[in-house]
Amino acid sequence: MILRPAYLNAVKPYINQPFIKILTGIRRSGKSTLLKMIMNELKQSGIKDERMICYKLDDFEFSDISAKELYGRIKEQLSSTEKTYLFLDEIQEIPDWEKLVNNLMQNENVDLYVTGSNSRMLSSEISTYLTGRYVTIKVFPLSFEEFLTFKKQYADIRNPRYELADYVRCGGFPATRLKDYFDEEIYTIVRDIYNSTVFTDIVKRNQIRKTDQLERIVKYTFGNVGQTFSAASIAKYLKSEQRSIDNETVYEYLEKLEKAFILSRCSRYDVQGKEILKTQEKFYLTDTSLRYAVFGFSPDSVASMLENVVYLEFLRRGYDVYIGKTPKGEIDFIAGKQNEKIYAQVTQEIHSEETQHREYDRLLDIHDNYPKYVLRTDDFAQGNYQGIKTMHIADFLLSKDF
Is 81 strand, coil or helix? Predict the structure, then answer.
């Protein structure tokens, strides 16, 4: 088991505190393994095995169990004198799970950790039952730094700038990085993750009948990563394929893909007007391998996937991320948290003076003192250009400076 210290460090401050620790993220992103890591951390601190209880709730054993029945089973195992550390994996499989954890938290001798693969866990129902008593930690597939750590276990690591191509092409689902798989073997694993997520967390849970509509919306969004579009754009595309659908239904499907953590929505921000815009958003994938596993690898998609990778890194580090709208055009990302802000342009290569002006001039038009980056993967002269830092994307992903 390879440690993921960033997540362990995020959980540690809340151990033995009266909060439910909720780990959310796409299926197979490593949530169950993180529970094991937390359990090992507790063992090292002196907690005995018998004080830790773990239920894997997507097992067949629990397929028909009610929240009340599970509560009764758990209650029998709780100590009346010592703290019990309770781990409930894939808790969204239990109907009315919110009531279950709410009742468990009435016991002061319970320290509770749960995982879930659907962002319904972040809905108003949680707020209703668990107000002020939970912390949410979103678990992503491997970052570029974690990918290198995993790969070191079975292969020699080249210069990270060369390794970036492998990371973009085959992604970071932990299960695909346990040995030296061929690309097609990785895509087979990822297709299984994708299919089980779509069927279990979207089609089955929402009782969707027109699965062909969902598949076509997936095809459109996967093919337009990094491009602004609207529900009307998708509806028009489907109409061209003789598939009629209204805008509201498109939005509902997109929302379901978001809740299952397949897609992530990125809104536009008007830099001049200082407001978030509600139209022409972008969508990014939770892992770049999803696109290639479903549709096959295509070299002309690499530029958008590099943008996707940078977007995910901002999210992993806790930034709120927007697309910047300026009078002269678009800034790929404006990332902010607390009093920090970063502007970033992402490009695969700059091969002309025109491209260089496009990437740099939009940043030069922003007159504040926050860091500004142009991130690329080709050869370039190191240094700053009028205060804008040029970096290789691999170096940026591994940087500790943001």
Answer: coil
